[in-house]
Description:
This protein is an alpha+beta fold.
Amino acid sequence: MLSIYNKIRDYIIVLNYKGEIIFCNESFLNRLNYKQGEIFNTSISNIITNEDKKSVERLEDENKTLEFYSKSNELVRINTNISIENFNNEKSIFIIGKEVYQKTYTMEMLEDLLDNINVCTFIADAYGKYLYVNKPFTNILNKKREDIIGTYNSDYWEENIYKVFDENNKEVFKNKSPKIFHEEILSGENSYWYESYKSPIFDENEKPKYIVSTTKNYSLSKIVSEELYKNYNIATLERDSNGSCNDLKNILTNIGENIINYTNADGLSIMLYDIDKEGLVPFIKLKDANKYLENVEFTRVKLNELKSDKYRVYINRILPRKKFDNTLNPDYKCVDELDYSGNYIIKLDEEIIGFITLSYRNGNGPKFNSDEYMKYISNRIAMIIKNVRLKYEVSVENKMREYTEKELERYLDISVDLVAIAGRDGYLKRVSSSWYDVLGWTEEELLSMPCTDIIHPEDLASFKGKKILDDIEGIVITNIIRFRHKNGQYIYLEWNSKYIGEQEAYITSAKDITRRLEIEKEKITLEEAVKSEIVKNEFFSNISHEFRTPINIILGTMQVINKNIENNNIKLDSLKKYTNYIKQNSYRLLRLVNNLIDINKMDIGMYELRCSNNNIVNIIEDITTSVAEYTKDNNINLVFDTDNEEVITCCDPDKIERIMLNLLSNAIKYTQENGFISVNINSTVDEVVVSVKDSGIGIPIDKLDMIFDRFGQVDESLNRKCEGSGIGLSLVKNLVELHGGKVSVKSKVNEGSEFIFSLPINLNEESNNKYDIDRKSKHVERCDIEFSDIYNL
């Protein structure tokens, strides 16, 4: 609790019933400059006046102003509340209070204060008679205070002016509330504006007693604001304005004269900063400044210097002569004629535009400190200067735009391409005459409809998608779009567009490429025909070789057998050897014929799968085991591996075997002795993946894309290690895809190849497992047929 007492700003003193101090909070101790040990357990009478002792001892008044003596005998008056409360479990006297601050000012002090503020103040009775005016008010009327008191507004102003003042006075009495008025005073050709705050005072009977008013001259602010607003409107609306240097000079001269009237200065100059020359150039010279700056045309000073601490103490303030800095008051010979000078920076958004310099001759000085007000005015002048410069830039831009538009008109008239300006709304804003020549639409028709109305429906999505990219300024987007000719035909246009953010428009050009595309199409058709003819010729040459080779072997073998028969030289071993030749090449012919028949069936859609639910792992494992003898004879290590022993899916067992035999046949053909072939099966919930990998000669990377093409062969020479028509892998691809799967290859030259095919796992509820476990006896003949083109087996 004591810590809480010490944080309270009110003074707290706790006494026991003997009148001894048993606690004081820190606020009380600090105010009387005591330490806790100096008054603790001492009598309250030691620090209180005799008159207040009885009040504390008898508690005769709960609310009492008590007087305490500080350690330095200063008398401190405290408004207190005295009560009985528990403190440390004992009833004690609590004195809690706040200090009483006495009135220390006099009427003379208040009048001095009012005479030295930058605001006119007066008091008038209910009838408008002046009861009091301060010194700034007397300066307006140029009369003494005693001459003004007792007079009326009608004694100084014309009827149209003083009636406004009197009506405003009546209004605040009527509404019984203060109000701010903006009142104009005409003096000769000049107009002055004052902001008057008027507050009514009433007597005890609620009758009007007098008015208290403060009035501030804001003519300078009004003039500057009007110039700023006017120049802003000109810069943004009046596109034909030139924004000349003379416009700015006239504006700043008018403002400068009002600044002199407001500040009572003897001279004023406005110096603007020239970035190229790196210095200040006098732009406006008024009154004495014409003499002081007569020979000054340029003052060199860098921007970083103006922003440094070196000049900061001389900026935005009035200084007496002894503190002048000659750099900002460049005419050294005139400094002795001045008592005061001020420099106010003209700056906007950290950009230094220039300075306003005020000067006061000997014997004259500022009527009041107007530094803050001049900083405000300087900021508004900066805005005016920027606006006038903007006017000039707008004028230059308008002239350039007019020139550009004329150039554009000429370009549109002579351009062969279809040139246009399109808005974000999809409408064309400008088009060249070539649009009519190409599309048959007139300029009026094109400008009256969105360009999407004449774009081919299939190209609309592409056009709108490209348009999103077009919004990135600076990027040129090119696409080919079909536009509808007025006769209904579609014309292909190569469309180029670039987005211009400032105009929210697209600059576009297009070329009619319809004929070019037709020629390209004809060229492609011709190339495809030539390519097809080449492939056909290669095929017939290849297939002729494939047929001729085994036929020649068969015929040659038959001639040898017949010769041996004629010579009666038939031996059983030789005959068996010759019949094996005939058998192998017959198988080869059979394999070739089967492949050609199957490929043709696939082309015309007559090839059918006989699918049933089977354990595909068993099918692949069985056919892999069947070729083990072939790999063993060639000293090739064959490995089979699977993650699952059973994967049931709906497939055609014969076609799966054929796929595997083709892949294994290729692997054996191109794998050297002591190499390896691995068959691996993996499965997921959705598919089974089979890999046939070898350590053979590999396939060049530029041939990988063609090996599944019909008749495609990596080794095209007739002296290949192994013969073949080149349609085996094409058949594999077709068979896999008929099952709904995919096939791919990975290969590196001299490192081997890996063929991977995947099949979806599907089940046919009406199908039973028809896979015949005795099919293994048929595998040998199938292997003989499939491997018949491997001569070195």
